[in-house]
Specification:
Helix 8 runs parallel beside helix 9. Strands 7-6-8-9-10-11-12 form a seven-stranded mixed sheet, with helices on both faces. A five-stranded parallel sheet has the order 2-1-3-4-5. By secondary structure, the chain is an alpha/beta fold. The protein contains 15 helices and twelve strands. The chain has a domain of 151 residues: Rossmann fold, CATH 3.40.50.2300.
Amino acid sequence: MKFRASAAAAALMLGAALALAACGSSPSSSTSSNASTPASTATGVPTGNYHPVSDYAGFVGGSGKADNSKSPIYIGVVNQQGGTADIAPEWTNGTTLAADFINNQAGGIDGHPLKLVTCAIPDTTSAAQQCGEEFANNNSIQTIAMGAVVIGNQPLEQAILPTKKALVMGVTILPVDSTYKYGYILYGDATRVEAPIGTFIHEFLPKVKSVSIIYANVPGSNVPNEVIASTLQYYHISVKLTAFDPTSANITAPVIASGAATAGLVIDGAGNPVQCSDVYQALKQLNIKTPVLANVPCDSAVTAQGDGGQLPIGWYYASANPLPGDPDDPSLAAFKAVADRYGDPTGASDAWVADAFGQVLTIAKVYNEILKSGGTITEAAVNSDLKSLKGAIPQGPPQLQCGTIPGAPAICNDEVSFFQNTTPGVFKAIARWIGSPPGWKPPAGLF
């Protein structure tokens, strides 16, 4: 992923769209039926009962080109970009990719061309509020797709709230996102996509008895790492958290202080490719051979540059998206074909592009279902259909559970998958779609 450094950005980039968000209640205590001991195959855990979406036109519900003689149907798109704290401007590229695909291969929206109404937030709360007001006052828009936004979320949502317009998010950052009444967070928040790390280590790396978590010292970045630490302590695994100065040219001292050399596992909690690379290079410089687990943003060309263009062999990765390089996932080739066709070949390996693509296609599916059943696209109809979605979505989890978590009604997913980079370009699935530790609750007052 590309990255623009900022305090909030560092927190956001901790997930694959794996993001920092608050939680006032316990996440789901169940684990996926795929959370079994991995088969000893060359490619890892097969997809099993996980059937990812690879027929995108079928998912949307149409085929061929949209009819440009019909009136367009509009979807709002908002992302934080154009300022000094851009997090993922490539997310917006993913929305364009989705619109191009829908209009050229999925028949538009019941034949109508899809048009995006885009509003950018250049890292000011006033800009966020203005975007919210523009969407609220535009009667042509019933749904807004939100990208990597960490500034002005509350003013944005407060401006939209009275209209009851749906806000479809890929990942969330702040407490207000997970509690937004008409919100749908398709890929999960930090509590629910970081907490499964504890489950994974306990069930799949049982020899690990101590963990060193190393992360950048920026406001907010402690929260997801403390969530991870809490899940490890729940399993009586000793853990040490060590923060480093992200502006430092050399972080070997904090890495030494972290106890990484003697730990059973290092968690690279740096959160973005640049800082992932810093941790990687410090470990290499110190000749520390301890196994490493990282979030999917570390699966990046930037991190790979720390080793001459190759990602570190043996690292584990947590992801709430399909992970490029997984030979058993048919959705990866399908997504790459779309990205190649519409001029964004690098987007096929970018989780932010994948998130945006899935968000817009999910909205289009709902719109098609409403219109093809003889209904009208209204705020009430959209919210009703989004709440009822249960199956797999593009580039996301195998099932949704929107509105089922008390205190966080917008959350739709609480599971992630884990992979290991076994050889260059190959990511072996170790566990598919597992959840938080059964019975675990987030630390009181952390959010």
